[in-house]
Q: What sequence folds into this?
């Protein structure tokens, strides 16, 4: 006869409520693990979507995600000419926060060359960008509809497609526009600013007595052309030809002034180890604390449940019950509670993970490890109850 | 079995709690024998040592001095005898009935009896059949699936008696079995014990402070201040 099951059957209300409470706690532990995995997945999402071998960024920076990086767009031609490089595409990134429906609306805008790569990895609804201007592909998480317009910079952009879960390293959903549009949004000045700049340059040049009016006018046009240019990008990503030597290509680009080639592995390390390391440690610490709390709670539940059964245990001992019967009752209840709580927590997260503001990634290995840890906690926690039970004297069954 | 063998044989049993100046003698030089099929009472006021005597005979409390022999097996001789498996002895030779029935609250009446059989290595089906048979014989056939909380005091005590009888023990020890019952139910329980002692040929030793409940007992040992001071209605079967 299984005494643990019989006890649970009799006290099922209490057992179910206790398991639900513990399940909620384990749900938080599971979600913490999921958030941690989600952080990594988010951080590497754009990296994985681009499938680039090299990221060329501004010299002495770890851009474009960890640090700011600005390089001229036309460096792409030089990179394409490097032996071993199959293709190179300029990309710009910027975080945008605007008001939408009266609420802050934050997203990560990616500009890519339509003839190159670095665009949306897949289109789940609608189509990709076909026109060079004023079209946008938005991530599903932005909650935008096909045909919806959004005002960015000086223009309105129409959503023509929806892409899947692509986010920035900080978890903001991504939207794609053409590189030209992204450059306009990021760098193009409004007319007042342009007029103001031109007048300032003109005034400065007029102060130089040695310049003739023709020279001054020529210089003003050239300087304004440079200051008004939007042909700047944050990075140029490159893919290598099959068999090309990555280090050789990196070495060659490193020799140029002003540029730094970062391999995909290095970029992964910068993102995973550098940017999210503290968040990872924080989440890890939370998980440990929550598991310790779970252990304490399970121990208390088992201990108080054993105290409730002192007379039962004493009676069992008095009628000659073996210790294994009593140990089995306590241990099985503890394990069963942990088992049920684990699956309540797991089920809860499975039902709600899509509602979390940040991505939750549940990996089978993590879940298996957590299951083993929960079972180990249940076994260890049951020791306090078992220790108490083994100390109960059969004589305690006597008397009123 | 030797037909002259006592079911319980206690010789000069002494139990002292504590040591030195704080030592308290709960039982001193108690000697008694109980034959199979006999219903014997240990009668005495609270604190007289009667429960201590019962727990020493019930292999719960280790005697300081003296011998205890249960069904021909010497279990104590100035302390527990080495090599004796007390749990097994309690399981196989002894049955206990308590003041407050002590049924396991999360087991049904039938399961409460079955547990005593299953821990004595009986299979589930055999235990179920034996428990049903026992409870039916005690007029509890209609209460098999009821939890103790749904039973009356008298019914619960009868389930406890069924549990004590489950393994057909040679000795049944009852500690104030009528204390939680009204007079009528108490007398019914005592009558039932007497009937079972005869039918099962078990020695039944009942500890009580209520002299009204010992009517019809084969023998009564009067205990006071840790000593057996009187023995009434002695029937010599030796």
A:
């Amino acid at each position: 006869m299984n005494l643990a099951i019989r006890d649970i059957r009799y006290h099922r209300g209490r057992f179910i409520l206790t398991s639900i409470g513990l399940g909620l706690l384990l749900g938080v532990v599971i979600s913490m693990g999921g958030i941690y995995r989600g952080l990594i997945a988010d951080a590497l999402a754009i990296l994985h979507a681009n499938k680039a071998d090299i990221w060329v960024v501004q010299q002495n920076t770890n851009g474009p995600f960890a640090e700011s990086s600005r390089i001229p767009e036309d460096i792409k031609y030089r990179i394409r000419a490097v032996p071993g490089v199959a293709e190179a595409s300029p990309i710009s990134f910027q975080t945008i926060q605007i008001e939408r429906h009266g609420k802050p609306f934050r997203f990560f805008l990616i500009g890519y060359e339509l003839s190159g790569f670095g665009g949306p990895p897949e289109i789940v609804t609608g189509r990709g960008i076909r026109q060079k201007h004023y079209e946008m592909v938005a991530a599903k998480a932005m909650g935008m509809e096909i045909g919806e317009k959004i005002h960015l910079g000086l223009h309105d952009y129409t959503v023509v497609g929806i892409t899947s879960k692509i986010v920035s390293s900080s978890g903001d959903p991504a939207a794609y526009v053409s590189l030209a549009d992204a450059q306009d949004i990021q760098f193009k000045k409004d007319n007042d600013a342009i007029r103001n700049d031109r007048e300032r340059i003109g005034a400065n040049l007029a102060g130089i007595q040695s310049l003739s009016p023709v020279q001054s006018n020529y210089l003003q046009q050239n300087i304004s052309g440079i200051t008004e240019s939007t042909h700047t990008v944050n990075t140029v990503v490159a893919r290598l030809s099959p068999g090309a030597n990555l280090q050789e290509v990196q070495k060659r680009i490193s020799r140029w002034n002003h540029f730094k080639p970062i391999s995909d592995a290095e970029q992964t390390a910068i993102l995973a180890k550098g940017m999210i390391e503290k968040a990872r440690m924080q989440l890890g610490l939370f998980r440990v604390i929550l598991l310790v709390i779970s252990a304490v709670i399970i121990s208390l539940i088992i201990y108080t449940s054993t105290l409730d059964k002192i007379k039962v245990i004493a009676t069992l001992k008095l009628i000659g019950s073996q210790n294994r019967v009593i140990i089995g009752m306590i241990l099985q209840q503890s394990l069963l509670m942990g088992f049920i709580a684990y699956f309540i927590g797991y089920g809860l997260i499975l039902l709600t993970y899509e509602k979390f503001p940040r991505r939750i990634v549940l990996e089978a290995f993590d879940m298996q490890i957590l299951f083993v840890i929960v079972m180990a906690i249940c076994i260890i926690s049951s020791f306090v109850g078992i220790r108490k039970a083994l100390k109960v004297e059969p004589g305690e069954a006597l008397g009123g | 079995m030797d037909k002259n063998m006592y079911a319980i044989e206690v010789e000069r049993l002494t139990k002292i709690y504590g040591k030195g100046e704080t030592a308290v003698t709960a039982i001193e030089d108690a000697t008694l024998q109980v034959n199979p099929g006999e219903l014997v009472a240990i009668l005495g006021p609270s604190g007289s040592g009667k429960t201590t005597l019962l727990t020493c005979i019930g292999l719960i409390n280790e005697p300081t001095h003296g011998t205890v022999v249960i069904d021909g097996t010497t279990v104590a001789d100035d302390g527990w005898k080495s090599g004796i498996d007390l749990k097994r002895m309690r399981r196989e030779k002894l049955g206990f009935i308590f003041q407050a029935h002590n049924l396991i609250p999360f087991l049904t009446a039938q399961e409460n009896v079955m547990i005593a059989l299953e821990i004595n290595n009986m299979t589930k089906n055999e235990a179920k059949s034996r428990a049903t048979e026992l409870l039916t014989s005690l007029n509890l056939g209609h209460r098999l699936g009821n939890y103790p909380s749904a039973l009356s005091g008298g019914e619960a005590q009868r389930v406890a008696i069924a549990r004590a009888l489950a393994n057909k023990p040679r000795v049944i020890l009852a500690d104030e079995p009528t204390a939680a019952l009204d007079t009528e139910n108490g007398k019914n329980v005592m009558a039932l014990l007497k009937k079972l002692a005869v039918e099962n040929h078990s020695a039944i030793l009942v500890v009580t402070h209520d002299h009204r409940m010992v009517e019809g007992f084969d023998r009564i040992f009067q205990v006071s201040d840790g000593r057996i001071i009187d023995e009434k209605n002695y029937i010599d079967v030796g």
Observations:
- The first helix of chain B runs from residue 50 to 57.
- DSSP finds six helices and ten strands in chain B.
- Chain B has a mean pLDDT of 85.
- Chain B touches chain A through 36 residues (CB under 8 Å).
